[in-house]
UniProtKB/TrEMBL annotation:
InterPro entries for this protein: Sig_transdc_resp-reg_C-effctor, TPR-like_helical_dom_sf, Tscrpt_reg_LuxR_C, WH-like_DNA-bd_sf
Protein name (database record): HTH-type transcriptional regulator
Organism of provenance: Gordonia insulae
Residue ranges of domain HTH luxR-type in the record: 286-350
Domain of life: Bacteria
GO molecular function terms attached to this record: DNA binding
Pfam families linked: GerE
């Protein structure tokens, strides 16, 4: 995933310089939406929003509506993961409208995943199952889209949450087969979910082995929410087996992964697990400081805080340097800051 993202960034730069236009035409919107998907998976959610916003701007004409639907879906998933449910719902409704007009596999699939993501963060496992089961249904040579594969572990976990052991095992077997046929690495998720199933059987030995294998198989290329869920569940398993020090370590890793992404509803859920629901500290939401900015101002701020120059930001957002200076000035005034160092403190305050 990281290597794919690096390649896409290079391709995006070439498109900005029109080096590939004679061969590919205007693929900037498509490139941005793929970058946004990668950034979402990796947990770079601020950057995912930047790329999704660029895709929306670039895919304004009707010939690229299917890309617009995906950009709305990715925006919805980020906002849902950060607890901005009203904003997420608006993006989902727009994505649904577009997918109904242009029902491509990617448009329909991504909007479905966005609805499932909102249901998951609200703790509605029944709705998660209802949404995602449609995407993974099939047989024979049927292979779900890559977007569906990344959410398949969420479906298995939701079935386990509902006590549907048979359904979970069936979905997990299908996931293993599809991942193998697509040559995708889902070992961490497979070991994690097998550990949960072993736990249901009361087989602590097998569960321990599976959780250890999940940790060994974990990479930063895997869906950030899966990584955090695995660590949280491992911590719960260790605590239940009176290995409190090891459990604390797993909870701490889960918290760090979620905090880095800004997935604060999930972070508060981990805190609730740790404390048993009593005296849970309210985690500061990094989105709260940036919520007063427009989408474009926020995009400029995120990229500036990441160390990009005004010229680089302008190229990445397909706007003029003067436009960047204008939005940056407005952001400075609204946030009450005076330098890029101050901006970095606002954006990365966790």
């Amino acid at each position: 995933m990281t290597e794919s993202l690096r390649w896409l960034r290079l391709s995006e730069g070439a498109l900005q310089r029109d080096e590939l236009s004679p061969l590919l035409g205007d693929r900037r919107a498509q490139t941005n939406v793929i970058v946004a998907r990668c950034e979402y998976v990796l947990g770079h959610w601020d950057k995912a929003l930047v790329s999704a916003h660029s895709a929306l701007d670039l895919a304004a004409d009707e010939s690229q509506l299917w890309i617009t639907a995906q950009a709305h879906a990715i925006s919805a998933m980020v906002h849902a993961g950060r607890g901005n449910f009203d904003v997420a719902d608006r993006h989902i409704k727009r994505g649904n409208q577009i997918a109904a007009v242009v029902p491509t596999v990617d448009a329909v699939g991504m909007t479905t995943c966005a609805r499932a993501a909102l249901a998951e963060v609200k703790g509605d496992s029944e709705a998660v199952i209802a949404e995602l089961a449609v995407l993974t249904r099939g047989g024979g040579d049927h292979l779900p889209g890559s977007h569906s594969l990344f959410f398949w572990p969420t479906l298995v976990a939701a079935r386990l949450d509902r006590g549907d052991r048979a359904g979970a095992e069936s979905e997990l077997a299908a996931l293993i087969d599809s991942a193998r046929r697509r040559c995708l690495d889902f070992r961490m998720q497979i070991h994690w979910l097998n550990a949960r199933i072993a736990g249901l059987d009361g087989d602590s030995t097998r569960a321990d082995v599976e959780y250890a294998a999940a940790v060994e198989s974990e990479t930063t290329d895997q869906l950030v929410l899966d990584r955090a869920a695995m660590r949280r569940d491992y911590g719960m398993f260790l605590r239940a087996n009176r290995r409190r020090r090891a459990a604390t370590e797993q909870f701490a890793i889960a918290r760090r992964v979620l905090s880095d992404a800004g997935a604060f509803p999930y972070l508060r859920a981990v805190d609730s697990t740790i404390t048993g629901g009593a005296g849970i500290p309210e985690s500061a939401d990094p989105d709260s400081a940036l919520s007063i900015l427009t989408d474009r101002e926020r995009d400029v701020v995120v990229l500036a805080a990441d160390g990009q120059t005004n010229k680089e930001i302008a190229a990445g957002l397909y706007v003029s340097v003067k436009a960047v200076e204008y939005h940056l000035g407005n952001a400075y005034a609204k946030l009450g800051v005076h330098s890029r160092r101050d901006l970095k403190g606002v954006v990365h305050r966790k």
